[in-house]
Amino acid sequence: MSNAYLEKLKAIMANPTEMAGDKLKSFVDETMQYFQELQESLKSGDAEAKAEALHKALEVKEHLEEQMKAISKMTGMTPEQLLAHAANSATLNEGEWKSIEEVRGKLLGAAQKEAPKSLKPALAIKS
Question: How many CB atoms lie within 10 A of CB 113?
């Protein structure tokens, strides 16, 4: 079973310095589209489509977890410390921070749109 998105994700992770600005925004758009397609497959009545979508989502999750472990080991930081570091505007230049904020807003907006009503208050975009 081919997972073209996972292969692209692996290529990006192998050379993350090339992923900035418009490339990052484009990849985020592709990511959102990919997960929307998976979500639609999971909602379908086709058991085979559901199983394939779940398998693809788990492949991506496992890859991201492996990457986080590798980065943690390389930096000596826990995953929580890495996330806190990435959320700190002082650790990035202005352009990088602006890109992250735009991506974060886009992702939160999409999550809020798709989330069940009970989760929407937790996903409220804070200004």
Answer: 9
- Of the pLDDT bands very low, low, confident and very high (cuts 50, 70, 90), residue 111 is low
What are the tens digits of pLDDT across the range 19-57?
A: 766 777 788 788 888 888 888 888 887 889 889 988 988
| Cα 36 from Cα 51, distance rounded (Å) | 16
Q: Are 5 and 29 in contact (CB under 8 A)?
A: no
CB atoms within 10 A of CB 37: 13
Range of the domain at 89: 4-123
* CA angle, residues 87, 96, 76, in degrees to nearest 5: 50
* Domain count across the chain: 1
The dihedral sign for the CA sequence 52, 53, 58, 63:
positive
